[in-house]
Design a protein that fits this description.
It comes from Colwellia maritima. It contains two helices and no strands. The chain has helices spanning 3-26, 34-54.
Length: 55
């Protein structure tokens, strides 16, 4: 592989890695209240029951 191909490959990998790290750094976690968490759990339980009933 030529020198320009190696440089281009390293540059592409650097851009990809930089993008992934930037995305990880800018990601925000959800701050949910306990009420919201209970609603989510109830909804998931209902969906699980519906899926079991369909099978």
């Amino acid at each position: 592989m030529s020198l320009s191909g190696i440089i281009l490959t390293i540059l592409a990998l650097g851009i990809i890695l930089g993008g992934v790290l930037m995305l990880k750094k800018s990601a925000k976690k959800f701050d949910l209240t306990s009420e919201q968490l209970t609603k989510i759990k109830e909804r998931n339980e209902e969906l699980d029951k519906e899926e079991r009933a369909e099978k």
